[in-house]
Amino acid sequence: MLKDISCGALRSQDIGKSVTLAGWVHRRRDHGNLIFIDLRDRDGLVQVVFNPELAEKAHVIAQLLRNEWVIQVSGEVLARPEGTVNEDMLSGAVEVYASELTVLNQSLTPP
């Protein structure tokens, strides 16, 4: 199965669930030990967190990701830490901690 829920459909009631998502890398932020990806599909965005202590292989692959690459991610939905909720996103109260990452298609960086 490519995905079992849409990125934009994740909400607080999904906390604790294991999910598989697929979509485009909208934005990538490397904060040293943690890598954050805003994953986009037709229904919206969700933040995915790659932590080398939880999934070293996925973290190594996440270092290579670029905008508009198509990926599949499996992981657990968790509440964002206090003070990091993004009110501008419908899924802004949650994030997915990745356990697996597969690159489905690479893309040249858009102009």
From TrEMBL:
DNA-binding is among the record's keywords: no
GO molecular function: aspartate-tRNA ligase activity; ATP binding; nucleic acid binding
Alphabetical keyword list: Aminoacyl-tRNA synthetase, Ligase, Protein biosynthesis
Gene Ontology annotations of biological process type: aspartyl-tRNA aminoacylation
Cross-referenced InterPro entries: Asp-tRNA-ligase_1_N, NA-bd_OB-fold, NA-bd_OB_tRNA
OB domain mapped to chain residues: 19-104
UniProt entry tagged with the keyword Protein biosynthesis: yes
Protein's UniProt name: OB domain-containing protein
